[in-house]
Amino acid sequence: MGGPDPDQPPIEDYGLLGDTRLAALVSSAGAIDWMCVPYFDGQPVFGRLVGGPEAGTFRLGPANRSTVVSRRYRQESATLETTWETATGQLTLTEGMVAEVTGRLMPPTLLVRRLTATGGPIEAVVEFDPRLGEQHRRPDSRRHKEILVCGWPGLAIALHTAPHIAITPRQPTTVRIEPGEPFTVALAVAAREPLVHVPPAAAWDALEADERRWRAWCMDVHQSLPRRDVVLRSLLTLQLLTYSPSGAPVAAPTTSLPEVLGGTRNWDYRYAWPRDASIGVAAFLGVGKQDEARRFMAWLLTATRLDRPRMPVLLTLFGRHPRPERVLDQWPGYARSVPVRDGNGAAEQHQLDGYGWVIDAAWLLTKSGHPLYGETWRAMAGFADTVAARWREPDAGIWEVRGDRAHYVHSKLMGWLALDRALRIADNHRISRRRKARWAAERDALAVDIIERGYDPARQTFTRSYGSADLDAALLVLPLLGVEPVDSPRVRGTIDAIRRELTADGPLLYRYPPGQDGLPGTEGAFLPCSFWLVQAMAATGAVDEATELFDALIDLGSPLGLYGEEITPVDGRCLGNFPQALTHATLVQAALALRDVDGSSRRL
Amino acid sequence: MDWAGWAVFGLIATTALTAAMIAAQLLGLTRLDLPLLLGTILTENPDRARVAGFFIHLAVGQGFALGYALFFVLLGRATWWLGGLLGLLHSAVALTVLVPLLAGVHPRMASYRAGPASRAVLEPPGLLGLNYGPRTPLVTIVMHLIYGVALGVLLRIG
Asked: Which of A301, A306, A307, A323 is the mutation pick for testing B, counting most B CBs within 10 A?
């Protein structure tokens, strides 16, 4: 197997293409270096991103020296456009995946890429090297008329170009692009079903129709949002990371992009976390997308059914337990960051905070005029019972620390939230008095416990865990919960202490003191925490400061408006799996917090 | 043909099958919920859907019981093991054909091709219903064995 790839672009260089069933990452060189088929957590067919040069890529771009002069998503769509300046003119690559194929004889996966030239003819190159799975298996290739078909048992991909050129896998092919004569490539995937051949012109039309649908979808999003263009990109990213057949929100489309370059903090995020779904409910409700919010709740309901009243930490796209975590031994990893992992071992953890996020999402739904169905309410009540029974136990916490469990204060706060929101929902839904009384008693006991054991009066801050002096940036959700008044010294003291002690420069925060997780290396700043800080500051009345912070965070996004989980404070490089749904959801929530206080608070 | 037997025992066998399925759900063995799947054709409220789906399921079960009865008449005998064999065949058809095809006709069930415009909230069952849990095929086979054996024991020829 190959070694590390010397020409690897930075993580933030990648753009996201997707059809809500799978996703691809494409670099500014026009190389698709990551794409799993036939769904997000399938096998990579282009895996160079973490699998090295032998894991396959699909590049369309200039053959000779060139400079990227423009790179953007077409307005309010998922179609990506990259333009290079070359010696003979400008070459533009326009690409996307067709999301809506229902009811039509179309392949479930259809990637469309088009090269156009302006100014003069330009030499371009097509490098098509599909490899499947862990072993980078080469396909059996054959030609069917003008179509190249690459097959493995149970899987086939077809490449069709217009005008036709003969492409051979692994051999770069040069093509001359004349102005006014676009070169279009359609890639279709078939898994356990026959290939559907789509002429490139028809594929292009389908992509343009999809673009119109995305624009129409964006038109419904509230106009009053601050930085609406940026929020729309986050919402579109969240949509692209939602697996439409089941409604599962995928945390990220990648595995093992490192949290420390060259380090071992490399995890598989191609799964769905109930926590992310709940944050998604709040984000979509806030921008006026009720159907999307209800869809996440429907997924939560069906996916958790086998485990209730326990809440699983993470699930596959269809609500199964993920395969056991294992290491892909021969994979070189991104920037020599090994191991590359498949599966996620955090699935077996007990995380108390998850219950709080989920029941809070149910509460938000009821508050926005969607009473819970009986089954949904029974599920939520079961979760509340679990919290009431288990909050005294230590857990792994929101950061999924893989060591000894602890009494994390954030977990306890979210346990309090679970019981409090269940009680609020119970005001309008049927439940026995005895059960309500139990929840109320446990909620109140939990609040006392948190203040007695999780608050440091000397430093006027809540701490990371009982008995610890460390802080935890997840505690920034404190003013949003209602466990303490927003103007209480404990809330303000905690926000101030986190800003002081966990700062990673400028608007950035570490999630906990660097290195305090038992793993080697120091990770980057954790972006969702900074967006929580925006919310916390907005909630406590520091609106102007919150707006400044939000604007500074927007400037830290990738050139395409995408965010990973973490960022290096020194040079602003993205770290961790990319793009990350949690970061985008918290960005939306931060914008909503600013919108909701804007005007009213400032005028006070 | 024992019409009275078919009318009564078809109902009993389907009720037994439904009870076994609910028990399997309560035990956390599968997320397959046929009354819900059938009832959500009519309504999106899960509680009402289950009631409607239960009656639809009874009617469907009665229809299948007619097929079992005709098969016994053709063979000239009805035994528990013959019913069991038919139940096995029935479960194989249900898992490989009937349940996966539901996604094509059910207005609230997504397919593997669903896109962002889909408002279907029920996940597709997938091959052998595996999307509803890895033990779904086993549960389905056992349920249909109970159904087939019950009919084989209870139905009479002539």
From this structure: A306
Evaluate if residue A434 carries a pLDDT over 70. Answer: yes
Mean pLDDT of all residues in A100-124: 95
Q: What is the maximum span of chain B, computed from C-alpha positions, in angstroms? A: 56
Whether the ipTM is more than 0.85: the answer is: no
Is 90 exceeded by the pLDDT of residue B156? no
- What is the DSSP annotation of A184-243? EEEEEEEESS------HHHHHHHHHHHHHHHHHHHHTS-TT-TTHHHHHHHHHHHHHTEE
Whether A577 and A259 have beta carbons less than 8 Å apart is answered as no
Burial of A556 (0-12, 13-18, 19+ CB in 10 A): middle
- Two structure tokens written together for A31: 């190389």
Closest-CA distance of chain B to residue A512, Å: 36
Cβ atoms < 10 Å from Cβ of A92: 18
User: Do residues A343 and A323 touch, judged by C-beta distance below 8 A?
Assistant: yes
Q: What's the confidence (pLDDT) of residue A3? A: 45
The phi, psi pair for A322, rounded to 5°, reads -65, 155
Query: Exposure string (b/e) for A261-300, b if CB count within 10 Å is 16 or more?
Result: bebbbbbbbbbbbbbbbbbbbbbbbbbebeebbbbbbbbb
CA atoms of A368 and A379, how far apart (whole Å): 19
What pTM did the predictor assign? 0.92
**Contact indicator for A110, A188 with CB cutoff of 8 Å:** yes
Q: Residue B39 in contact with residue B32, Cβ under 8 Å?
A: no
Cα A475–chain centre separation: 21
Instruction: Say yes or no for a CB contact (<8 Å) between A102 and B111.
Output: yes
In one-letter notation, the amino acid at residue B120 is: A
Within 8 A of B123 by CB-CB distance, chain A residues are 245-247, 299, 302, 318-319
pLDDT of residue A389: 98
pLDDT over 50 (residue A7): yes
Residue position matching structure tokens 């753009």: A15
Report the Cα A270 to chain-centroid distance in Å: 9
